Amino acid sequence: MAELAVQTSGLSKSFGKIRAVTGLDLAVPRGEMFSLVGPDGAGKTTTIRMLCGLLPPTSGKARVLGYDLAGQSDKIKRSIGYLPQKFSLYGDLTIEENIEFFAEIHRVDRFGPRRDELLDFTRLTPFRKRLADRLSGGMRQKLALVCTLIHTPRLLFLDEPTTGVDPVSRRDFWKILSDLLKTGITILMTTPYLDEAERCSRVGLMNGGRLMTAAPPAEVKALMRGTVVEIVCGDTFGARAALRGLPAAREVQIFGDRLDIVVDDMEKDLPAVEARLSQAGIVVLDRRAVPPSLENVFISVTRPAAKEASS
Asked: Concatenated DSSP letters for 59-94?
């Protein structure tokens, strides 16, 4: 078995009567890129903050890079990098000056070669004298990543690193993360973008503070209940309204000029879907079964829990 970068057993965190994380059992091998996905309030950020030694667990155990979270949190903090959702850069300092500041915080001596290497790595070298306040959102995230990496951590925690970043910058950021993996670093991240999670070695689905599953994306998709049918029609919003409340259409999502409809049995349920659309005067131009996305799977596996919670 591969050596583990993160291992937890029954890790839990409560804030008063609120259970933010419950009984988390997680194992992340070294050198892996692992993503936690889930809605707001699922417990993703709380999990990362506990593993970074920033929040004490209410119960349970954890080891990070071989160090015990309960008694060796200082060693953990020196060995990891943590990029929170809101990373504090200093707008009146240049890129170089921000990096120098964080190098001093981490007590990195002779950081110049490491700084230059990271600036080249993130393609920020031409902008090294620019004030942080004058950077685009994508460039600010790259600078934040450089500041997080300046002390050469062995494990990198990223909390929704591309939220609010334009698509081109998101792509560039992911190229940087892929290149980082080649250096042997371990990455544990959270993301609200399920298409990003599919690029990771394994995905953990969290909901209501609990980890429902942790597996490679293909295995997670195998948990899908039902079949996803893609329907092309002229009025997607009208089609969605027409299908509301129809038992045969378990889930209906709009993607441009297409509908993704989840049915339990395509042969049995699809005629009912098409009949409802025909009654509404909506012409189906094309239809086909498509592989489920992680978003389809997540909705599928969380819906029963949501129904139970509301009953």
From this structure: EEEEEETTEETTT-HHHHHHHEEEE-SS----TTSB
